[in-house]
Amino acid sequence: MKKLFALSVVILILLLSACGSKPTSTVSSSGTFTYQSEDGPVQVPTNPQRVVVLTRFLTGNVMLLGVPLVSVDEMSKTNPNFQDKLKNVEVVTDESIEKIIELNPDLIIGLSDIKNIDKFKSIAPTVTYTYGKVDYLTQQLEIGKLLNKEKEAQAWVDDFKARTKQAGEEIKAKIGANATISVIETFNKQLYVYGDNFGRGTEILYQAFGLPMPAKVKEMTQKEGFFALSTEVMKDYMGDYVIFSKNADEDNSFQNTETYKNIPAVKNGHVFEADAKAFYFNDPLSMEYQLTFFIKNFLGK
Q1: Which of 27, 119, 227, 270 could cross-link with 220 by S-S, CB 3.0 to 4.6 Å?
Q2: Sign of the torsion formed by the C-alpha atoms of 85, 120, 144 and 164
Q3: Is 205 in contact with 239 (CB distance < 8 Å)?
């Protein structure tokens, strides 16, 4: 009897201890957990299997973590890096309410300015992000938290930081730490140059590698992140090396002008052309492609 009483006391103490301790996880018994979004807590699935991504800026973030997608936007679908993996995935917009209902998603992801947000919330848990609010690495960690894959997201971040650090050091050793880099692209018959946080590999070149941009580029892209160029002033914005994010469907006739042909980077063979459709974004899959491109073109690997 004494032994039984003693055992009962031990069990009671353990139960009281458990009741008084703080929870180590927000996962509920129903297979959901609370994600702290920009707009407050959202109850989301612990293991999402039918995800809708309404923005091209986050498609690659989800794909890297191996979470099944049922629909994406048109630009993601036609991205050369994504095409094979998204072959059987539907195309939607923030106006495709009926189509998304039919797809029966368990999670919807978009940007903070999407239309029909209340309708989406009635279909499935909906989480939105403000584009550019956090850096590209933090954004991946946030997507990792949302998809209950924070460890996998952190592992990619750590590995990518290490690889870009090494590549950056090797590139600086080869071209010189003071060699300037410009990133250009044509859009709607207009030539643009980009700052340090606008996709097209800029985050890797200027942030991860720590390579400098020409003074004019730095000055004129500070406000909006990009700057429109005329042929007459083009040479003032071209660095020792130029990354041309080239869309074959655009007007690239500036390349035929004498002004362009006489730019030192052009004459020295220091213009590296990339497929713009695969180069636009700063999601992890796009950045993996960009990193490979830079290592190949700068280092010949």
Answers
A1: 227
A2: positive
A3: no
Residue 108, token pair as written in the block: 């919807």
pTM for this prediction:
0.85
The whole-angstrom separation of Cα 205 and Cα 291 is 9
76, 192, 286, 298 from 280: Cα distances, Å: 11, 13, 8, 20
Among the listed residues 44, 37, 278, 277, the one whose alpha carbon sits nearest the alpha carbon of residue 134: 37
Q: Would you say the C-alpha torsion 208, 211, 216, 217 has a positive or negative sign? A: negative
Q: Is the CA virtual torsion 67, 116, 279, 295 positive or negative?
A: negative
Mean pLDDT by 10 residues, the chain (301 residues): 39 38 40 96 97 96 97 95 93 96 97 95 97 94 98 98 97 96 94 93 96 96 94 94 95 93 97 94 95 97 84
Domain annotation for the chain: domains and CATH numbers: 32-148 (3.40.50.1980), 154-299 (3.40.50.1980)
Determine the Cα–Cα distance for residues 123 and 116; give it in Å rounded to an integer: 11
The confidence score (pLDDT) of residue 3 equals 38
